[in-house]
Amino acid sequence: MSDDSPQRSESLQRLYDDKLVVQAEVRDHAQGGFHESCIAAAAALPEIAAKLREDGFYLEMLTCLDRRQTGEEMALIYTFNRFDRAHRLRVESPIAAVAEWRGPAPAPLKGAAAKKKAEADKAKAEAAAARAAAGEPDPDPAAEGASIASVFRSADWYEREVYDMYGVTFAGHPDLKRILLPEDADFHALLKDFGRIDEAETTLDDQRPS
Amino acid sequence: MTSDLHKPGAALAAGTSADPWATPPADPDGETYYLNMGPQHPSMHGVLRLLLELRGEEIVKCEPIIGYAHRAHEKMAENRNYMMFLPNTSRVDYLSGMIYNIAYCQAVEKMLAIEVPERAEHIRVIVCELNRVSSHLLWFGTFLLDLGGITPFLYSFDDREQILSILDRVTGSRLTYCYGRFGGVTEDVDKKFLDETTAFLARLRGRMAEYHALVTDNVIFRSRCEGVGVIDRETAIEYGVTGPTLRAAGVPYDVRRAEPYGIYDRFEFDIPTASGADNLARYYVRVAEMEQSMRIIEQAIAKIPDGPIMPEKALKRFKPDVGEHYFAVESARGQFGIYIVSDGSDVPFRIKLRTPSFSNLACMPDVLRGTMVADTIAILGSIDIVLPEVDR
Questions:
Q1: On chain B, which terminus has fewer CB atoms closer than 10 Å, C or N?
Q2: Which of the listed CATH numbers 3.20.20.70, 1.10.645.10, 1.10.10.10, 1.10.340.30 matches domain B73-391?
Q3: Residue B165 in this model has a pLDDT that exceeds 60
Q4: A86 to chain B nearest CA, in Å?
Q5: Which residues of chain A does B243 touch, with a Cβ-Cβ cutoff of 8 Å?
């Protein structure tokens, strides 16, 4: 990764120098709402959170993305922010698929779209290879998250919500149990292959009086 | 008795550490007992259940149990296109629904780089701030009701009803507004709306003086509030507490200032803070905030230009580029964040709603430890939670 401008914040630079994060980049806040972004291995999160806490950050949000349909890993998305000035730092952490994908395969791309996708995939793979060659490989997807509830107690509920909705577990969580769904639920509701509308038994049209 | 009250479901099978309720505490004198407060309880502001471990009147341990009003808004978002999700947004927090509705529009506008006409921007500020005042008025009434004073409730609901009527005339709904559209608002406001709003502000100014006379220096009110339910700066950082609850701890954090959105950078207003971090401080902050909102509305009414309320080219079906966006606004209860991930289709890949009450409520086990049961009601009332917003 090149150290070109714009300048990273001290907090992110410190995380980068300590080899806790990779792909530490400055983002355009006016564009996507994030000031900075980086990727970290799940196991490094408690240390990252502790350092950010020292710097005056709080945990703003934690959520998860399920990208299994396209064969990618899942990811935890943490955002940290500050009260004294806006500084939204996004930390992404890859997580291995919690279950096998049982939904439909992604719709095959045709023509220009397929070409564009292939080019993007190739560029992505090359960038990852370049980072690995420079001694900064992307973190492998972890089997489970590492709880940061001992650093930010707000993470307690956020991690329970991610567990509830996605089935991702967090090592070291004080009491990981469901939070929003019924405690005897046997599903994780926000996984993309759960509750798809094309699988619904009845549609609104069926319920309409004929 | 303990473990049956709250059966820990599948999570324990995941091999994590112990359920805090699994081992009954040492109770040599038999004084410890458990109380389920809610979910059906008039002062739980919806359907919150607090599992309390008590010794006499004192709370030893408290666990909030939520999810009774979970309506799967985030799952619904992944099953319909961006436009179809619009009516959901104001149902997330039905007391400041306008702010949520407009926030979602602004988030999508940011993704698509849509310009909003000036007149629409001003209308949005006016209706959002009116909505904030109505939400605070409801809090004012119900908070005092929680403390046992019935009269302020009658006053504040009278005032709030005026706002609902004003908004009803222009939006067609009293609470769950769907007034925003990507690029503007659905209906233009007329002169009558602006006149009614101006008249209402004048009326509310007079009423605020009455509120202060009736409540602020009331001895009983003060003794229920002073020094009760301290949520200080450290607790706020620990739990991500935002909004009036945070500002009552002396932190001047307001998204309208920290990350100005819409046209909020053009208005003069103060961010009221207080230093006590207790119930009384939160009361002061909210009452002062209503006055700041009135200031903003007056400026917006003075400046509102003529012109269109939607861009010339109306948006129908659209596919945002692949990417992710975080958009934050200041709702009546704190920072409301919308995290949208697009995979390039017309259906959102993921919409995460970061609702303020979720974090504000999470600190309750810490705040309530060592307090009295009667104070629980006062503290919960003072942080102004809305359970459907916690549960989404």
A1: N
A2: 1.10.645.10
A3: yes
A4: 6
A5: none
